């Protein structure tokens, strides 16, 4: 939940980086909330004769924050945020899914420092280095 709240606090921040956890937890909360909103709309009878009101109330406010966290996730991979536009072509969403699943660029990149801090290693890299020693 903290990752979702962190993404919502930075809802207009298209600079910087977002970790995999921040991106996927935000995506999970928005997805589950959308499912709940669809169920509420169906229970209330919305969407049959008019727009699905509850779903719209959930999805519309999350559109810009979702775009911002997606751009920051791409920045974390040292890719430009313009890659989100590939999602409008066929199979482009699959390319984005592969990007979103990749591990973060360790340390600093051209978009700033990672969540690990001042060039610090990720926990996985630190474990690998400790095992190699």
How would you summarize the topology of this molecule?
Blueprint: H1 2-9, H2 20-44, H3 53-59, H4 63-76, H5 92-101, H6 123-132
Structure characteristics:
133 residues, mainly alpha, 6 helices, 56% helix, 0% strand
Short description:
By secondary structure, the protein is mostly helical. It has one domain (2-132). 56% of the residues lie in helices and 0% in strands.
Any overview of this molecule?
With 133 residues, this protein is an all-alpha fold. The chain has one domain (2-132). Helix content is 56%, strand content 0%. It is built from 6 helices and no strands. The protein is elongated.
Number of domains: 1
- Distance N to C terminus: 36 Å
Task: Find the count of extended strands (DSSP E, 2+ residues).
Answer: 0
**Overall 3D shape:** elongated
Biggest sheet statistics: none
Beta-strand content estimate: under 5%
Rg estimate, integer Å: 18 Å
């Amino acid at each position: 939940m903290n990752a979702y709240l962190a993404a919502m606090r930075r809802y207009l921040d298209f600079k910087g980086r977002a970790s995999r956890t921040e991106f996927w937890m935000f995506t999970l909360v928005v997805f589950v909330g959308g499912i709940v909103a669809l169920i509420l709309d169906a229970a209330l009878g919305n969407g049959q004769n008019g727009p699905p009101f509850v779903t719209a109330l959930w999805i519309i406010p999350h559109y810009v924050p979702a775009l911002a966290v997606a751009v920051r996730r791409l920045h974390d991979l040292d890719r430009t945020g313009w890659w989100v536009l590939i999602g409008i072509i066929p199979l482009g969403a699959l390319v984005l899914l592969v990007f979103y699943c990749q591990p973060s660029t360790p340390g600093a990149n051209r978009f700033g420092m990672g969540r690990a801090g001042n060039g610090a290693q990720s926990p996985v890299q630190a474990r690998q280095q400790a095992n190699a020693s």
